[in-house]
Every structure is written in structure tokens, then in C-alpha cells.
Hints:
- By secondary structure, chain A is mainly β.
- Chain A has one domain (5-111): Immunoglobulins (Immunoglobulin-like).
- Chain A is built from no helices and 11 strands.
- Chain A has strands at 5-7, 10-14, 19-24, 29-37, 43-50, 55-58, 61-66, 71-76, 85-93, 100-102, 106-111.
- In chain A, strands 2, 4, 5, 9, 10 and 11 form a 6-stranded mixed beta sheet that branches. In chain A, strands 1-3-8-7-6 form a 5-stranded antiparallel beta sheet, with no helix packed on it.
- In chain A, strand 6 (55-58) and strand 7 (61-66) form a beta hairpin.
- Chain B has one domain (4-109): Immunoglobulin-like (Sandwich).
- In chain B, the strands form 2 sheets. In chain B, strands 2, 4, 5, 6, 9, 10 and 11 form a 7-stranded mixed beta sheet that branches. A 4-stranded antiparallel beta sheet of chain B has the order 1-3-8-7, with no helix packed on it.
Amino acid sequence: xxxxxxxxxxxxxxxxxxxxxxxxxxxxxxxxxxxxxxxxxxxxxxxxxxxxxxxxxxxxxxxxxxxxxxxxxxxxxxxxxxxxxxxxxxxxxxxxxxxxxxxxxxxxxxxx
Amino acid sequence: xxxxxxxxxxxxxxxxxxxxxxxxxxxxxxxxxxxxxxxxxxxxxxxxxxxxxxxxxxxxxxxxxxxxxxxxxxxxxxxxxxxxxxxxxxxxxxxxxxxxxxxxxxxxxx
Lengths: 112, 110
């Protein structure tokens, strides 16, 4: 069954603005990851946050994790045209069955 | 050098045919996966192999048969293709987390 759910499903913002995407999941996790998928390409790993971490930064990316609410957010600051892509959260469950489950993704479109 | 490579990139075939997709990784990872992405971009895990051993086999029709000749290769063979098999199939590999994906094989069944 599907683990993660992102919202919004689609997001259009002006270049230079910040983009925030949210992810909710159902079961206890070992870690949560965010991936980006450009059109016609495979997914690329962006950032991983462990269940005992609350916030993590990488360049213009900021990820938060709230295990009590089973939710995470991905913030992209000062967006650029090249950030146009689909963004997926993925969870690695505690039962360590090596199964990484993806959400449905958020389609982000940066307007020039 | 491509880390995870899949062939072919595009595959168009008729219903009832049998086809294979190949995947190779040069990252030295011990786990490889097949994911299916449908037209709504939903990504669903199909299989996972660790050191040539099947460890995840989701609810996938037995027309789909993965084969791992060594830990750097994981191929997917599909028998008696159906219209609903049309999708993009992604191979991935990992050493724990995160996953490294290939660029996908777009399968179209007509």
C-alpha cells in the first residue's frame, strides 16, 4: 500500500519565490527522503532525514520532519527555472524490509 | 560514466509479445530494484534483489520475472504483454539508502 502522500499535487510559483511541499506518511519510519524527477528522467536523491532529526539543510533545500504528525516538508528557497520538476517523498520503514515507498509527488512549475 | 543504465529507453510492442528490459549498475551496490511508474506518475515497487537473491516481490503478475545473473545486473522479463503494462519502468540500486535510479524504459503496448 502507498505510504507517502504529497501535497499539493501541483504548484506554480514565480521565479525567486519559495516553494513548500508537504508529505504525510502512515507507519513508523527509519528515515524519510526527498527525490526530484525531471521530465523524461529518473529520480534523483535530494536529501535524507532520519527519524531522530527534526530539520536538515542542503543548499537552498530545507527539510523538516515531525514524527508525531507523521509529516515532512520540503522548502526550496529562491526558486529557479531549473527547479521545475516533480518532487517525491519516500519512506524507509522501521521493519527494515528494504522497501522504500514513494508518494504520488508534487509537480512544481517555476514561472519566469 | 552512467551509474545505473537501462536498455532500451523506449519499447513499443504488441499485446501478447514477450519482452525484456536490462539494467546494469557500476556503483558496487548490493541491492537492485524495479519500480513501475504509471501515467499519473505514481511509482510502485515491483521487485528487489540483494546479492542476486530476491527479497521483495510485490503483488505483481507472474508474467513479470526478474533475473539477476550477478549483483551488478537485474533484468526484467515480461511475458504475454497486456495494454495495462504500458508504463515507465525504472531500475534502481542502493547500498542502504538512498536509491540511485536509471533513466527509465518507456514501454508502450499496442
